[in-house]
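Researcher: Batch entry, complex prediction.
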Amino acid sequence: MSKALSPIPFFSAPREFQAHREEFLRAVETCAKGPTLILGEHVQTFEERFASSCGVPEAVGVANGTDAIALALKALEVGEGDEVITVANTAVPTVAAIRMAGATPVFIDIDPKSLLMDTTKVKAALTPKTKAILPVHLFGNPVPMQEILAIAQKKKLSVIEDCAQAYGGTLEGKPVGSFGDIACFSFYPTKNLGGWGDGGMCITKDAELASRIKSLRMYGYGKERIAEREGVNSRLDELQAAILLVKMQHFPEDFARKRAIALRYDAALQKSSLQSLQTTKNAEHGYHLYVVKAKDRPSTLRQFQEKGIAPLIHYEYPIHLMPAYAFLGYGKGSLPVTEEAAEHILSVPLYPYLTDEEVERVCECLRAS
Ligand SMILES: *Cc1c(COP(=O)(O)O)cnc(C)c1O
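Model: Structure tokens for the complex:
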């Protein structure tokens, strides 16, 4: 019998708070003193710094990552009757956002080695109704964008990058999010750059698109408080922006720590029956989630659980098989690579505030599997 080990949490917000407690509290106080509690200087400063960190001129803060995608589609005039090519192995919000915009998701299968959109399958999915391609940089691993961009240019389609899991990742030396017409980020607490609640961001090189998203996030207002288009309320909170500004300052060291942990996991997998996923060529992984494939997942999960590690599964149910999306008409067997992967993947804890001892325990489990 192994001795009882303290459980390793999959994610820990309190550890991060403790690490930078004074800075966080100062940020909250500054925020509370105002003068503006909605769309004030914290949001503006955060938008500017975020845009610049992604190498683009424009960033618009919104209420969450789902809204970021829905508003991006609306700004690009993708809606009712239009098709958006994406994948079914993603977080539900990707697909929920396409539906919020009124458009129809068209799922294509994934590459078996990376589990990212199989870009060779885009062409065959095109129809006269196709209006946009929405690749997901899943787990932080950048989707190779070349073929997607070439098809989009030729067919005059929009490209929206779902960067919710990939802040910090790069492709061909450029930050993810700087390739498409608009890229969307989430500040959900567990993401690479996470707030103390919900938040999201759209980035773009196009000032006109940015101004449309700014209008859409605030009741469709134009310059005066007159609605020029039908908008919603989807603003990024000042308080979240203030917290995110603190986190952003520490992002380089946090990201470096996460990367170092991921590299130790990579090394541990050399002596394991577990299979790692292939990182895209010429890319720097964004290291949101550390995902491996297990031949016999139930037994691997048991081995981890015995050591106080509870892996999660991202994602156990491909979206095309979920009841809400049955009406789209994809049955079992329609996306074989996606469905096969879902039965074998598991994610182990990966965040900067894991202790060295915890990292070693995860490594031991990876080696022993
Ligand atoms: C987190 C996430 C989103 C957005 O989620 P919100 O909870 O709305 O911020 C979108 N796409 C993917 C792939 C995600 O992981």
